[in-house]
Amino acid sequence: ELIVERGAQDMQSEMERFPRLFRGADSVPGLTWPTLVIGDGQPGRQGSLEVDLGGVKVSIWHPGPGHTRGDTIAWVEEEKVLFSGDLVEYEAGVYTGDAQLEEWPATLEALRALKAEYIVPGRGEAMKGNADVNKALDYTQRWVTTLFQAGKEAAAAGMDLKTAMAHTRKSMDPVFGHVFIYEHCLPFDVSRAYDEAKGIKNPRIWTAERDQEMWNALQA
Question: pLDDT tens across 139-168, in order?
Answer without folding.
Answer: 999 999 999 999 999 999 999 999 999 999
